[in-house]
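User: Fold this; tokens only.

Assistant: Input:
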Amino acid sequence: MRGFSVLSGLFGLYASGELFSPRNVTCYRRLGRTLLYWAAAAFLHTPLLSLASSIGMPQGQRHISVGIGSVEIVALFAGATALVISWVMDEGRGIEEERTLTI
């Protein structure tokens, strides 16, 4: 839900004509971090679920399973991509700011 909220704010900035602004960069950074947190939560979901389901079993029969699937990889890749885009947008913001201050 946080990702959709950030995207809504980002598209609102685009609708108002703000392309290279600090708020735009902040939105991309928030989106990237949100996607990275999602990847971490998706990775921890399986081990915690398997541990919770076997916690009532006797000692020696408890188990934990760990796995990485496509959801984690896609979220990690998308989060890293959004962080790179935020870096590029920040550089573009600096260039735009320099251009507007040049006489």
